Amino acid sequence: MVAGSPITLLQRETAVRYGTVPDALGAISVGPEQYALVGDEFLMRTKDGLAFHYRKGQGVTVELGAQADPADEGLYLNGSVYAAAASINGFYPLHASAIAIGGQVVAFTGPAGAGKSTLIAELGRRGYPMVCDDTLILSTPAAGPIRALPGHKRLKLTASAFELTGAAQQERVAQTIEKHYAIPAAGTITHILPLTALFLLAEGRQAAVEPVRGGACLRALQDDHYTQGLFLAANRPDRAERFAQLARLAGAIRIYRFVRPHDARTFSANIDLLEEHLHEFEGADAAPAKTRETSL
Asked: What average pLDDT score do residues 67-88 get?
């Protein structure tokens, strides 16, 4: 069980210092492009000489290789290292991007390239603040609502996504990544909110929003993203415990499938359709009034 403020706890647990990291965790050696999670520790090395060691209660140690791109350090700290620390501390990482609406969080999940970040950028232009991009950290108590922590990553977009959404472009993410950081048009949420819905992004010829029910909900939550691997390695649930985890999450939120063609010509109309369904989550604490702009 996670005690105290989840935000404060993770800020403390992911505080960074620089030094030398070990070559192994116990008997498990970790070489370039490898990682290991054992007990309350996580160790990872990149092919370019960056190394990260997290130990619960002691924060993160970063070792800088001579050939490392400084921009990569933040990507790993906010990606694998953060997800590992969150998992070790009892949080649930979900491969999803999310917005806030009506005092609640609506998230969107799908494989890499499904358009999560582009969708968040466009919804931001329509007035929905960003909660997170790419990784959603959840607090999942045994009772009560599933709560979403504010994001720890910056919004990243491809050139085509900037064209579609008109987002404000910032610096390039890294030398090896063909993306730039972007400013969320409606800002970002900095406090914890309950998670109310999850949309599964899928490609299809006709745009549609469909409810997902029954066993399909459990299957939809079994993502093969590295974040789930880290969570399972940190918590090692048996089959019954894993089923209970998924059932708890599926029973606490509504799950939908958002199908749409990957076609720039229909992009705005597709988001119009999605937004019609988002209205059901609006309430007294809704986000600021949305502007109905047309996609570029």
From this structure: 91
CATH of the structural domain 93-281, one choice from 3.30.1380, 3.40.630, 3.30.70, 3.40.50 = 3.40.50
Mean pLDDT of all residues belonging to the chain: 90
Of all helices (H) and strands (E), which one includes residue 44?
A: strand 41-45
- Name the 3-class secondary structure at 18: strand
Q: Which of 277, 228, 238 is nearest to 257 (CA)?
A: 277
pTM of the model: 0.90
Q: Are strands 130-132 and 254-260 parallel, antiparallel or unpaired?
A: unpaired
Mean pLDDT of the region 207-225: 89
Q: Are 197 and 95 in contact (CB under 8 A)?
A: no
Q: What is the 3-state secondary structure (H, E, C) of 97-154?
A: EEEEECCEEEEEECCCCCCHHHHHHHHHHCCCCEEECCCEEEECCCCCCCEECCCCCC
Q: How far apart are CA 89 and CA 151, in angstroms?
A: 17
Phi, psi angle pair for 136, to nearest 5°: -110, 120
DSSP of 153-172, one letter per residue? S-EEE-HHHHHHH-PEEEEE
Q: For the chain, which residues make up each domain, given as ranges?
A: 6-90, 93-281
Phi-psi region of 128 (alpha: psi -120 to 50; beta: other; left: phi over 0): beta
Lookup result for tokens 């232009």: 125
239 — pLDDT class (breaks 50, 70, 90): very high
